[in-house]
Design goal:
Length: about 250
């Protein structure tokens, strides 16, 4: 009983610290934002390694055939949404979005988000709340809360959080869920007008969004935070002019 209480206390502490670091990082400007991002990532990786989960538990084994339908369905939904957006004249390019020119960084970031949601938040919440539907709702709520104050992303990430957690518990396939997240995130960015999703930004970046700002300017990046194109893209593409991603 004492060991179980100690385990639950540790899970709650790890969750609280990780979520607090994420929230703080979203509301501070660079360069402190980058420091907090890498601090959060180091915390998550270290505490995950210390927990010694199996690759199967983390959904990192080669996916089985039964989960491979997830990506085609995401592509189909994206195609349907793009067709509707084209008819409604809201379909646009990445020109004003944080995703512009950083698709590789965005794909990496979607996998990191899913790792955080499934392997960090969901697994710990499940140990705190053994009821699966309740744990899924709590994890999805935490995921949506990380997108404050962007109303569109709060709603869409809660819905996706519920779907992604449910799929993960059924198939233990982080790869398919991560790719689907990338596809649907890109779809949202190009189908919904910029003035609604504010360039997919959250936190301080949402408040500082300017609809006609040039996306390539370094000055615009100083106070940008986005959960859907976030610091991983910045860290990989903005280390220096010489090392920027093409």
């Amino acid at each position: 009983m004492a060991r179980l209480l100690e385990s639950k206390t540790r899970d709650l502490a790890e969750l609280t610290i990780a979520f607090a670091l994420i929230q703080i990082a979203e509301w501070v400007p660079n360069p402190l934002q980058r420091v907090l991002f890498w601090t959060t990532l180091a915390w998550v990786i270290t505490t995950t390694i210390l927990a010694k989960p199996s690759a199967q538990t983390l959904g990192l084994r080669v996916p089985k055939m039964r989960s491979l339908w997830i990506v085609p369905v995401a592509l189909l939904l994206g195609a349907v949404a793009s067709g509707l957006a084209s008819q409604l004249h809201t379909l646009h390019s990445f020109s004003g979005s944080m995703l512009s020119g950083r698709l590789r960084g965005y794909l990496i970031w979607t996998f990191l988000q899913q790792f955080m949601l499934q392997d960090y938040f969901l697994l710990r919440v499940l140990r705190l709340i053994p009821d699966k539907p309740a744990a899924v709702l709590v994890a999805a709520t935490l995921f949506a809360s990380a997108h404050i104050p962007n109303p569109l992303l709060i709603v869409t990430t809660f819905v996706w959080g519920v779907a992604a957690c449910t799929l993960f518990l059924r198939y233990r396939d982080l790869y398919s869920v991560g790719i689907a997240h990338c596809v649907l995130g890109i779809c949202l960015a190009v189908c919904v007008p910029e003035n609604i999703h504010h360039g997919m930004r959250v936190g301080l970046g949402y408040r500082h969004y300017r609809p006609h700002a040039e996306p390539a300017q370094r000055s615009q990046i100083d106070q940008i935070v986005s959960t859907d194109a976030c610091v991983i893209a910045e860290a990989t593409s903005l280390r220096s002019a010489r090392h920027a991603l093409p």
